């Protein structure tokens, strides 16, 4: 896929995103045939933002998340600054068709992780982390049927990135905790709650963070200082409706919360 094709495909996806519309698939001439093609299209998304890239998300780090979008492994996506909200904010529900919220561990990078030939080990990646935050992701897709779109198109579609709520910074004691066994509760108003653990995220959120460091490295992309990486849902995605309040309770690490607008 050449740059002109990647730019055209990205413009089409961004237009649908901004207008709250969906499409069945990218046109044949613009449809990515590999993860490499998908990331080439996704990279053009940064041109649609007036600010530097804010961070990254990892989609499908749990078996539930993979089933939700019909893939067999994780995908990396970009988080634009314009789509980030502070703790306690009200997020516009709009035309969101996925209509789920996800409780996630999010790591703030302290110094850049540069592309290199040798894969990064977890210890190296954690040494680059400045802080752990708690977060809630509200994903969405630009495809009519995101379950059958396939990994390459979903990567082009920014790995279903949409809105992200950045919750509080966790106490520094997180570094000595077993995040894989850490319990997380997601609540949707008084309607229901679900429980999960960090192990639902590729076995451990730190493993997921290491995965994206190496995924970006393989594609020549730097994980920059100051960027946030949200590592995927610890709880089976929470179905939400307009007006719902969503709480992600990480116990001793803190609580992230938000509300969806009524429309």
Overall shape: globular
Q: How many whole angstroms does the radius of gyration measure? A: 17 Å
> Quick one: biggest sheet?
8 strands, mixed
Overall pLDDT, averaged?
96
> Tally the helices: what do you get?
6
Beta-strand segment tally: 13
How would you spell out the order of helices and strands? HHEHEEEEHEHEEEHEEEE
**Overall SS class:** alpha+beta
Distance between the termini: 39 Å
Provide the low-confidence segments as ranges: none
- Which oligomeric state applies? single chain
- Please give the share of residues in helix: 10-25%
Brief write-up:
By secondary structure, the chain is of the alpha+beta class.
What does this protein look like?
The protein has 263 residues and is an alpha+beta fold. It is built from six helices and 13 strands. The protein has helices at residues 3-19, 35-43, 63-69, 122-127, 151-156, 205-218, and strands at 55-59, 75-79, 84-86, 90-91, 100-109, 129-138, 163-169, 183-188, 192-197, 228-233, 238-239, 245-249, 255-260. Strands 1, 2, 3, 5, 6, 7, 10 and 11 form an eight-stranded mixed β-sheet that branches. The protein has a five-stranded mixed β-sheet with strand order 4-13-12-8-9, with no helix packed on it. A hairpin with a 5-residue loop joins strand 12 (245-249) and strand 13 (255-260). The protein is globular, with a radius of gyration of 17 Å. The termini are far apart. The mean pLDDT is 96.
